[in-house]
Write a structure and sequence with these properties.
3 domains; UDP-N-acetylmuramoyl-L-alanine:D-glutamate ligase; about 475 residues; Rossmann fold; alpha/beta
C-alpha cells in the first residue's frame, strides 16, 4: 500500500478558502478545530448551529471574538448563503436548505471529505452496520504493534484534518466512517473494510437503498491498486464486492474462501494464491462472541502484507476491547455486569446476546430508529432469562417478545421507565453466576446525549452497587 499523497497541505487548503465565504454547520466537538483553523487563517466564516446562544455559552463568544458570524437557533439554516459549506455528519445533504444552497452554486463538503482531499498519508477506513468501532480499533492496534505510526479518526478518536500537516507519508490513518459521513464522499481509502450490512438508521435515511448506497462510497471511488475487504457471510456485502474496482478480499466465519481470511474447525486461516497459512486458534481471542471473531478476521484481512501473523495472534490474545462494547464493568457477588451501550440496533444486540454461553439478564430499550424488533424478540426468547425494558421502545420490544411463537411467559419482563430503576431491577433479579447485559437495541436520544453517556451512567450505577 503506497501513499498517493495529497495535492495540498492543510495550510494550502486554507489559503484556497481565503477568497471564499465559508459556512460551518454545527459547532460541536468534531467541527471546533476546523472552525478555529478557518478563523486563524482569516477565512470569512459563518457558524450555523441549531443551539441557541445561551446553550453555546462561552464558545459562541470566543468564536465571535475571533471574527466569526453566528446563525443560531431554529432558523440557523435560513438563507444559507456561502461558497463552501462544511456539513456536520448529523445533517443529511437532502436537507432542503442544503439542496437549495448547492443549487445556487455552493460546494458542499465536510471535515472528513477535506481530509481525503489533502490525504497526507495512507488511509484505511471501516464501515458497516455493526462492528465498525471495534474493527477500526483492532486495525490500529495491529498496525501500532507492527511499528506503524497510526492516527485514529472519523467517528472515533479526534478530528484529523487540522493536524494533517504533521503526518508523514508512511503514517497510516485508520478511520471509522458512518453512512452519514460517506453519503457525500467522492473519494475512497487505500483499504476499505465493509464489516456487514443490515437495516439501520432508517429513521434518517429515506430507505434501505439510500443507506446501502451511502455505504458503497467507501470502495466505489478506489483505484485498481486499492483493496476492499467484504464479509462473505453477509448477503449484501458479498453482492457488493462484485463492483469493487480494485483488489477484492473476503473474510468468512462460515466457510472456506479462495482469497482472504476464514475460520475452519476453530482455526483462523489466511489463504492467498492457493496457499493456506494458519494465523491462530479462534479460542485464543480474548474478546468474547462470534461477532468479535468476525471483527478480528476483517482486521486481519485488511492488514495482510502489513502485519505479521505473529503480531495478529499476540494482539488478539491480549487486547481487551473498547469501552461500551461488551465491556466488563465489574463482578459483584458472582454477577458479571457488561456494558454494551454501543448496541443501538437490534442486530447489534442480537450479536451481544450470542456472545455468551448462557442466558443473560438483558436491559434494553431507548429511542426508536424505525427498525422492526421481530428478530430480536425471537433471540430474546432463546438467550434471555429476565428482560428489563426502559425508554420509549419498551412496549414495542415487549410486544415483539410476547407475540413470538414459543413464548410461554419466559423470560419474565419488567418495565422500568427510569433508566436507573431498570439497572436496579436487573441487579435484583441476578444471582451468583448470572450476567447482566446492557444492550439497548435502540439509540439513547430519548434520555441521553449519546451511547457513551448512557454507558457511563450504567457504569456509575453498577459501580455504586453494594453486594
Amino acid at each position: 500500500m503506497e501513499c498517493r499523497g495529497g495535492l495540498l497541505t492543510f495550510k494550502e487548503y486554507l489559503d484556497k478558502l481565503k477568497n471564499k465565504r465559508v459556512a460551518v454547520v454545527g459547532a460541536g466537538v468534531s467541527n471546533t478545530p476546523l472552525i478555529e483553523a478557518l478563523l486563524s487563517a482569516g477565512v470569512d466564516t459563518t457558524i450555523c448551529d441549531k443551539n441557541a446562544r445561551d446553550e453555546l455559552g462561552k464558545t459562541a463568544t470566543r468564536f465571535e471574538e475571533h471574527g466569526a458570524r453566528l446563525k443560531l437557533g431554529e432558523a440557523y439554516l435560513d438563507k444559507l448563503d456561502a461558497d463552501v459549506i462544511f456539513r456536520t455528519p448529523g445533517l443529511m445533504p437532502t436537507n432542503p436548505a442544503l439542496v437549495e444552497a448547492v443549487r445556487r452554486g455552493a460546494k458542499l463538503t465536510s471535515e472528513m471529505e477535506a481530509f481525503f482531499d489533502i490525504k497526507p498519508c495512507r488511509i484505511i477506513a471501516v464501515t458497516g452496520s455493526d462492528g465498525k468501532t471495534t474493527t477500526t480499533t483492532i486495525i490500529a492496534e495491529l498496525l501500532k504493534r507492527q511499528g506503524f505510526k497510526t492516527h485514529i479518526g472519523g467517528n472515533i478518536g479526534t478530528p484529523l484534518l487540522c493536524n494533517a500537516d504533521e503526518f508523514r507519508p508512511d503514517d497510516i490513518a485508520v478511520l471509522e466512517l458512518s453512512s452519514f459521513q460517506l453519503i457525500t464522499m467522492k473519494k475512497s481509502p487505500d483499504i476499505a473494510v465493509f464489516t456487514n450490512l443490515s437495516p439501520n438508521h432508517l429513521d434518517v435515511h429515506a430507505d434501505m437503498e439510500e443507506y446501502a448506497s451511502a455505504k458503497r462510497n467507501i470502495f466505489q471511488h478506489q483505484r485498481q491498486t486499492d483493496r476492499a475487504v467484504f464479509n462473505y457471510d453477509n448477503e449484501y456485502t458479498r453482492k457488493m464486492a462484485g463492483s469493487a474496482p480494485g483488489e477484492t478480499l473476503f473474510f468468512s466465519r462460515c466457510g472456506q474462501i479462495s482469497d482472504g481470511v476464514y475460520l475452519d474447525e476453530g482455526i483462523i486461516y489466511d489463504v492467498s494464491n492457493g496457499r493456506r497459512e494458519v494465523i491462530m486458534q479462534a479460542r485464543d481471542i480474548l474478546l468474547p462472541g462470534a461477532h468479535n471473531l468476525e471483527n478480528y478476521m476483517a482486521a486481519f484481512t485488511a492488514v495482510r502484507g502489513l502485519v505479521d501473523h505473529r503480531i495478529m495472534m499476540e494482539t488478539a490474545g491480549a487486547f481487551n476491547g473498547v469501552k461500551h462494547r461488551i465491556e466488563l464493568v465489574r463482578e459483584l457477588s458472582g454477577v458479571r455486569y457488561y456494558n454494551d451501550s454501543i448496541a443501538s440496533s437490534p442486530s447489534r444486540t442480537i450479536a451481544g446476546l450470542r456472545a455468551f454461553d448462557r442466558k443473560v439478564i438483558l436491559i434494553a430499550g431507548g429511542k426508536d430508529k424505525g427498525i422492526p424488533f421481530d428478530d430480536l424478540g425471537a433471540e430474546i426468547i432463546k438467550h434471555v432469562k429476565t428482560l428489563v425494558l426502559t425508554g420509549k421502545t419498551a412496549q414495542q420490544i415487549k410486544k415483539a417478545v410476547i407475540t413470538r411463537p414459543g413464548y410461554n411467559g419466559l423470560p419474565e419482563i419488567f418495565l422500568c421507565p427510569d433508566f436507573t430503576d431498570a439497572v436496579f431491577a436487573a441487579s435484583n433479579a441476578a444471582g451468583e453466576g448470572d450476567i447482566v447485559l446492557l444492550s439497548p437495541a435502540c439509540t439513547s436520544f430519548d434520555s441521553f446525549k449519546n451511547f457513551e453517556e448512557r454507558g457511563e451512567k450504567f457504569r456509575e450505577i453498577v459501580e455504586g452497587l453494594v453486594g
